[in-house]
Design a protein that fits this description.
- The complex is a heterodimer of chains A (262) and B (443).
- Chain A has 8 helices and 13 strands.
- Chain A has 262 residues and is α/β, with parallel strands linked by helices.
- In chain A, the strands form 4 sheets. Chain A has a 5-stranded parallel β-sheet, with helices on both faces.
- In chain B, helix 6 packs antiparallel against helix 7 and helix 6 packs antiparallel against helix 12.
- Helices cover 41% and strands 19% of the residues of chain B.
- By secondary structure, chain B is of the alpha+beta class.
- Chain B has a 3-stranded antiparallel β-sheet with strand order 1-2-3. In chain B, strands 6-7-8 form a 3-stranded antiparallel β-sheet. A 3-stranded antiparallel β-sheet of chain B has the order 11-12-13.
- The chains are: A alpha/beta (262), B alpha+beta (443).
- The structure holds iron/sulfur cluster.
Chain lengths: 262, 443
């Protein structure tokens, strides 16, 4: 039983390419299909999405991946208008790259040009990071902690968590940044030696997510400290966070440009 | 007020929250069958944003009254008001002359949510701990009014670290408000997800406890099975923590967890956990550490495993007809070991229940749209950490009033009690043994 069971569930550290994939049973990140976006579909999508990820203005229909909570309802209800991306390589260095924009008149994605390269001075062989939870519900923190489990085992890629910001090359921040945490976040950042990078992990850390309208949050890590990498998700799966770390240190490239995988 | 006091003496407070310019106190009090506590009753107190304080007599209400005070209500006669979530109000820590003070946080060494702990120590020994939270306050409750069911659920699923339990309590409150109920298949699926969430959480507490005492073997073994079980929750709900699964009127989807795999994990845990918990290293570090007495648990209104490990045998699943013959897991020790034993036993039971619900899924639809209309109701669900409470008033498909309580809000003071007299290095262990949600407390 034991060997069979091991084979069935795979009790070994997974290969990187497997970690970076959305598992079969789950919905990936939504992807607009420009040709299927008829007026009826667009209106339906905007009505249906619980997180308000879709928007239309001045002939542009857009989908903000940093708002999407990954419920999968859009692709289910409008398969002609929305497909899905099954890769977890969704971390970006520019926030705008999380938004898919379709030019309704020309019928195609807007091209934002080439992806920017990550900062040179952060090209590091290993990375020690400190994590600050700033209004996160705790689940994004949990996903970061799970990078250390025997399945993801981030240690083999040279990544480790450190207790003090003085020992850290990078800062991972989760949550929309509550007012009450802003000062502690800023001071943690200032305590880090140069060069230092910051990763905003999860929708809330990018621009507040579902808390964007609250007077008690600042709605985005970049309101307090400069951010190098944004990783969307609700929370992002550990693989997506691993890709963000790889992107930060220049070991992988940015694949999501203009909200679409390249 | 006589009636309120009587109810509080016989029963226990469930929630205290604003309702217009009055406050409403929900009390669970005797009357149920089998000698367990039974129905809840609402009492309206005060008017024009003033109400008589009961905190001195019933300390379980202290934090509730402080939270109300921050929201512009005046608990007349409260013995010592201090902010909980608002950091713009003055806050002074209790001072102990001649004792050394050790401040910790809000940013901690590990990957956890922020909170501030102020220890007053004599040498290595903790004489007093005062906890200051509020760092996770995101104004969640203030965002609820005006929201439709789906937008409201997005917030509710972020109200604590247990999204399934919160969403379930909220959806049930909404359904009850309209005199509605989810179809049987959805009821079973909801409970299956709830039990998987519980098992996942409890194993997390156990793995954390083993880590904190330096028992790497135990931590790795439990952590491994926990990660695999998370995959099954993911398969069932489409989300690694069970978000986007429950809706008002039912559930959104029905995934395909592998029942054989869940059963195999349960078997393995049933062999593994008793052995791990009997290890001398575990007994040595966890026994008689971080004690919370039964009388304290009762007076301060602790809930969930925290209460049950201190001999207070109350679990909301006792009142749920879908759990026939349910008996709560109770331990008398009140120490870290007792809590670990409760987690282990409840975790195994949770997997049994999850399998039961998934194997006996009734036929029928996954959801039925609730009728239009208006109404209000309170619903409670036994989450891994204790009772989750949601109250909602609905009019024309929108939230008019919504108030929620995460179990951690009721349990945080257990930590202050548990560490009294312990050595400072035992703090992380005691903390982990409750594993409380910060964000849930900071709503
Ligand atoms: S997956 Fe859900 S949240 Fe994301 S865009 Fe589609 S409908 Fe909106």
């Amino acid at each position: 039983m034991s060997l069979l069971y091991t084979l069935k569930v795979g009790n070994l550290a997974r290969k990187l390419e497997d970690i970076l994939k959305v598992p079969q049973h789950a919905f990936g990140y939504p992807l607009l299909k420009p040709e299927g976006l008829t007026p009826g579909v667009r209106e339906g999508l905007m009505r249906l999405c619980p997180s308000g990820a879709f928007a239309e203005a001045e002939g542009i229909f857009s989908l903000d991946l940093a708002r999407c909570v990954g419920c999968g309802r859009c692709a289910l209800a409008y398969p002609l208008g929305v497909g899905e991306m099954r890769s977890l390589e969704v971390a970006v260095t520019r926030k705008e790259d999380l938004v898919q924009q379709v030019d309704l008149e020309r019928g195609g994605f807007l091209d934002p040009g080439p992806a920017p390269a990550p900062r040179r001075e952060l090209r590091l062989p290993t990375l020690a990071f400190r994590e600050v939870s700033a209004g996160d519900t705790g689940l994004t923190d949990s996903e970061i902690a799970l990078l250390n489990n025997p399945f993801n085992d981030m240690g083999r890629f040279g990544f480790q968590v450190v207790a003090s910001p003085r020992h850290a090359d990078a800062l991972l921040v989760t949550g929309p940044v509550s007012r009450n945490m802003a000062e502690a976040l800023r001071r943690t950042y200032e305590a880090m030696p140069e060069p230092k990078g910051v990763v905003a992990v999860g929708n809330e850390a990018i621009s507040g997510g579902v808390f964007a309208g609250s007077s008690q949050v600042l709605a985005g890590v970049d309101k307090v400290v400069p951010v190098d990498v944004y990783v969307p998700g609700d929370p992002p799966r550990p693989g997506a966070i691993l890709h963000a770390l790889m992107l930060l240190v220049g070991r992988m490239t940015q694949r999501l440009v203009g909200g679409v995988l390249r | 007020m006589g009636k309120v006091r009587e109810a509080l003496r016989e029963g226990r407070p469930v929630a205290l929250f604003p309702y217009g310019d009055r406050v409403v106190l929900w009390v669970e009090y005797p009357g149920g069958e089998k000698g367990v506590l039974g129905p809840t009753q609402a009492f309206f107190l005060g008017e024009r944003r003033r109400f008589p304080s009961l905190a001195a007599e019933f300390p379980a209400l202290d934090w509730f009254e402080r939270a109300l005070w921050e929201r512009g209500f005046e608990p007349v006669g409260h013995p010592g008001l201090k902010p909980l979530r608002r950091h713009d109000l003055p806050h002074t820590f209790r001072e102990f002359p001649h004792l050394h003070e050790v401040p910790v946080g809000p940013v901690h060494a590990g990957i956890i949510e922020p909170g501030h702990f102020r220890f007053s120590v004599l040498g290595e020994r903790i004489v007093n701990l005062e906890i200051r939270l509020g760092y996770q306050h995101r104004g969640l409750l203030s965002l609820m009014p005006g929201k439709g069911a789906e937008a409201a659920l997005l917030l509710v699923e972020r109200a604590g670290i247990e999204p399934v339990a919160h969403a379930m309590a909220f959806a049930e409150a909404w359904e009850r408000a309209l005199g509605w109920g989810a179809p049987p298949r959805a009821q079973y699926l909801r409970r299956a997800a709830l039990e998987l969430e519980r098992a996942f959480g409890h194993l997390g507490h156990l793995a954390g406890l083993f880590t904190d005492i330096g028992y790497a073997y135990g931590a790795t073994q439990v952590g491994r099975i926990r990660a695999l079980l998370q995959g099954e929750l993911d398969r069932l709900t489409g989300h690694r923590y069970g978000r986007n699964f429950i809706r008002v009127g039912g559930v959104w989807r029905e995934g395909q967890p592998d029942l054989e795999v869940i059963a195999a994990h349960r078997e393995e845990l049933a062999r593994l956990l008793p052995r791990l918990l009997k290890n001398p290293q575990v007994l040595d570090r966890m026994r008689y550490v971080g004690e919370v007495r039964r009388a304290e648990a009762l007076a301060l209104g602790f809930v969930g495993p925290t209460a049950r490990a201190s001999g207070v045998g109350r679990d909301l699943r006792q009142d749920d007809p879908l759990y026939p013959g349910f008996t709560p897991v109770v331990r008398q020790g009140g120490d870290v070991l007792s809590r670990a034993q409760v987690y282990a036993e409840e975790g195994l039971k949770a997997l049994e229940y999850a399998l039961f619900f998934l194997r006996h899924l009734p036929a029928g639809p996954l959801a039925l749209d609730p009728p239009p209309g208006e109404g209000e109701a309170l619903a409670r669900v036994e989450a891994g950490r204790g009772e989750v409470v949601w109250f909602v008033r609905v009019e024309a498909g929108r939230v008019v009033v919504a108030e929620g309580v995460d179990p951690s809000f009721k349990n945080w003071r257990a930590l202050e009690l548990a560490v009294r007299g312990e050595g400072l290095p035992d703090f992380p262990l005691c903390n982990k043994s409750f594993d409380l949600a910060y964000a849930g407390s900071d709503l």
